[in-house]
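Box S1 | Example of a co-folding query
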Amino acid sequence: MMTDGLGRRISYLRISVTDRCDLRCRYCMAEKMQFLPRNEVLSLEEIALLADMFVARGIRRIRLTGGEPLVRRDIGDLVRRIGRHVGSGLDELTLTTNGTRLSDHADMLTGAGVRRINVSLDTRDPERFAHITRGGRIAQVLDGLDAARAAGLAVKINMVALKGVNDDEILPMLHWCDAQGFSLTLIETMPLGETGEDRTDHYLPLTQVAAMIDAHHALTPLPDRTGGPARYHAVDGLRARLGLITPLTRNFCADCNRIRMTCEGKIFMCLGHEDHVDFKAALRSGGVGAVEPLVDRALRLKPAAHDFRIGTDLAPATRRHMSVTGG
Ligand SMILES: Nc1nc2c(ncn2[C@@H]2O[C@H](COP(=O)(O)OP(=O)(O)OP(=O)(O)O)[C@@H](O)[C@H]2O)c(=O)[nH]1
Ligand SMILES: C[S@@+](CC[C@H](N)C(=O)[O-])C[C@H]1O[C@@H](n2cnc3c(N)ncnc32)[C@H](O)[C@@H]1O
Ligand code: SF4
Ligand code: SF4
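Box S1 (continued) | Returned holo structure for S-adenosylmethionine
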């Protein structure tokens, strides 16, 4: 079992399997991104070995993310490999995806033991989707969602709430999710990495959004926890649950159980801090045995909380984009 310096039990590992993506969401990435050269990126076997080590150390949930996890070649091999732990070491293997390639992978995911996925969709309007993602085609995501349903995957839609961009779509999105049998999680935009845009312009506190929804459908907090940061609510008159991820208006750091591994083998102990431990050199020179002592060093680095601020002149909390650590 892993415990950090503040006594928080670490049981959830998020693995960013690639820093690449086929979209360029305006709140996440800059238009022109420089991605890692391939030799800097861990092989699937190296990622799997580190995942095995973390499961042996007490990780109970793994979420694969990115960049876009489904653009990594042979991703199916990795999902199947880590999926072997589901039901023994792991309670759950999940994935967060933009959905563009889900049609090709939904059956593979269920076959590998994945039961639920999170799909990011900030708008249902094709032109707005193309604008937010800088060129994405929404039809691919909608096809992917159909494939996920057909494969029996439970789907949660992630929507970053953005003032003046998609705030008029929040209630319609909730109704649509309800009709589709999905749940919806709203997310406050976080200041990570320069994107070429000012996030303050579009920051929308979810306290305001929850009050707006509550005026139409009373919200009742639920005790449900998934291991992630969302706080869930029952929505009067609808089956869909509503999750709220509020790093800025109500942070959830005191209960944090999460660590993150990037595709180049860096372990970040907090989404909002630069401190990390690099496993790659040790892994490549001495195998997993050489990495074990570094885990303890990493655990001591975990901060009490992030120090994200929005609406100030300060630069983003980290220069790293969300896509590097996978959210
Ligand atoms: N500040 C902060 N944000 C997080 C953390 N974990 C996830 N998020 C954010 O939550 C959003 C949704 O993340 P997902 O990948 O869908 O995962 P999740 O909602 O934690 O997953 P489940 O609750 O297991 O469904 C993303 O914008 C993440 O950046 C965290 O530890 N701290
Ligand atoms: C970085 S993406 C990686 C996985 C996949 N490409 C996707 O979009 O689902 C994971 C989640 O982070 C969210 N995200 C990205 N940048 C963000 C930011 N600056 N603030 C809040 N959430 C962000 C995305 O909307 C997505 O739901
Ligand atoms: S949010 Fe996901 S889909 Fe959008 S640019 Fe970032 S990594 Fe790509
Ligand atoms: S911001 Fe850092 S400490 Fe807070 S919940 Fe996220 S990872 Fe944990």
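Residues 21, 27-28, 65-66, 68, 96-98, 120, 158, 160, 187, 189-190, 192, 322-323, 326-327 surround S-adenosylmethionine (ligand 2) (CB under 6 Å). The two ends are 24 Å apart (CA to CA).
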